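Sanity check

After download, print the first record. It should look like this:
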Amino acid sequence: MFTLIGTQWHNGVNGPTGLRYETLFDLLDRKGYAGENWWRLFDDVRLMEAEALKTMRS
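Expected structure tokens:
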């Protein structure tokens, strides 16, 4: 899932600031995720987002 939205970053003056969650929400819904599975995948993507931002900022 993370790679599917890999081009969907908000960018500020100093580079990427986070993912566009509206894109992620749409994709999770279209793929049929619901309930606890939806939240688990969302949390997983947020974890990957945080690590990616650390890497991009270092």
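If your output differs, re-run the checksum step. Summary of this record's structure: The longest helix spans residues 35-57.
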